[in-house]
Amino acid sequence: xxxxxxxxxxxxxxxxxxxxxxxxxxxxxxxxxxxxxxxxxxxxxxxxxxxxxxxxxxxxxxxxxxxxxxxxxxxxxxxxxxxxxxxxxxxxxxxxxxxxxxxxxxxxxxxxxxxxxxxxxxxxxxxxxxxxxxxxxxxxxxxxxxxxxxxxxxxxxxxxxxxxxxxxxxxxxxxxxxxxxxxxxxxxxxxxxxxxxxxxxxxxxxxxxxxxxxxxxxxxxxxxxxxxxxxxxxxxxxxxxxxxxxxxxxxxxxxxxxxxxxxxxxxxxxxxxxxxxxxxxxxxxxx
Length: 287
Description:
The chain is about 25% helix and about 25% strand.
């Protein structure tokens, strides 16, 4: 609660409010942190000469973090690259088995842990359940592809796109055979991988600038971007509309390509997972 209070009511210096980030009581073994997060991590113990107010000055909540333990063995953690997006923090919380409190430079405040993500929205908290709670319905059958790729796509949709209000349609096709006809309106994109952390920033940046769907292959590699989905007559007659045009076209495409998984992200945040014309799940505010 001290760290949440600090994030919500930070000190102001010369009209500037500093960002911050604290990792609380990590329970996993440090030996797995680097490989699990795909980060190079430098750890510096903080002795008694660094009380909490002084130690917080060095933790920007992006590349540097205060690691705080109940027994007082606090550390300064520094990464080789900024890791301050919501998806980054969700991965950190999962790998370190910790609770994380962040005040982002943009002013947003998040608390992330086993419970999922809490986002402060000015007057109240919004709760985003953990992506792992979707796993059973998403990965129930091997014919629908690699569970690790599916979960990476869902994390990207919820924490990279939905949290920033970027609307998108992501289509995962585990079948190597040609899928339903789509209208390709943009040049072939670079082969960005949804499981490669360093590839997600350019992917997010591109999706924020285009309409249409992004199609990924069985390995989670981006193959098409900005395509227009063209529903079959059968899907139009059989599959009901779902919200707006984006969700409806995604749902009907999933009917026409039954082994695919379609993840629809609304501009206002909620995420829907669609398969074979059905809605597998929707995040809060998705009704």
